[in-house]
Amino acid sequence: MRKFAAFACGTGAGFAAYYFQKLRDPLQVVHNSWTNSERHISECALWDSNWDFRDPKSLARPMKNDKPQEQNRYNADLEKNTSKYARHIILIRHGEYLDVGETDETHHLTDRGRLQAKYTGKRLHELGIKWDKVIASNMVRAQETAEIILDEIDFDKTKVKSCSYLREGAPIPPQPPVGHWKPEASFFRDGARIEAAFRRYFHRALPDQEKESYTLIVGHGNVIRYFVCRALQFPAEGWLRININHASITWLTISPSGNVSIKYLGDTGFIPAKHLTNRIPREAKNVV
């Protein structure tokens, strides 16, 4: 009887040690909590918490030793570099336009495109957002869209910023490849600029930010689709798999921890169905 009790006790201790070790493994905790599976997680599915290089641990000066004074200094550095509030980035694709003429100056919104922008402006007004920044691509169709939206929302037009980095372009060769479209020179020319725009506007809040902030960016389809892939840490080559309508709303939130979530992706539910478009009109008709 004593031998059996000792065996049971030893076995129980062994199981306890095994499960304690499992609980110490954060990846195993995720498995148990979400999938109850031992299947390996793909590397491309893992989240890089320092994607914007603003993780406090990457900004604080490392500890020289383990003395209390040095630990206090390190903790103070962490606190000084820690974000407190979220950033909301709302991306608007320009309205429908006509691709006529040889320069951007002739690419104006159609009547339908102006109407789409008006619907979007009204929707943003209904959301009751107090905007901290409004930025628009300096291409004509984006500038015209922004101007119409600004007539509907509460923001000082003199504070709107124009940005050439947000101009439309080809960000990266897509996967799967598109056989009829191979603008290698465009990728070489545009890719670095669009990536620079992402790095300029997508990052967690500065530590001194005192409330949640809201940034409105009026831009272009390819750029927005690339931003979404990059922000969510999906393979950037998948940008062409996403389709968004003209004057649509895409809303991304960057939390203080650096985690990113998406609230809207190409939302146009507020625009009547007969006015929905996503491609350049085939015929040069400027009517609704």
CATH architecture descriptor of the largest domain: 3-Layer(aba) Sandwich
The separation of the N and C termini measures 90 Å
| Assigned CATH superfamily of the largest domain | Phosphoglycerate mutase-like
Strand content: 5-15%
Summarize the structure in words.
The protein folds into two domains: 30 residues, no CATH class; 189 residues, Rossmann fold, CATH 3.40.50.1240. The chain contains eight helices and six strands. A six-stranded mixed beta sheet has the order 3-2-4-1-5-6, with helices on both faces.
List the main descriptive attributes of the protein structure presented here.
Rossmann fold; 12% strand; 288 residues; globular; alpha/beta
Summed up:
The chain has helices at 2-24, 26-35, 56-59, 68-80, 111-126, 140-150, 184-201, 221-231; strands at 87-93, 133-137, 161-163, 213-219, 249-254, 260-267.
Write the layout of secondary structure elements.
Layout: H1 2-24, H2 26-35, H3 56-59, H4 68-80, E1 87-93, H5 111-126, E2 133-137, H6 140-150, E3 161-163, H7 184-201, E4 213-219, H8 221-231, E5 249-254, E6 260-267
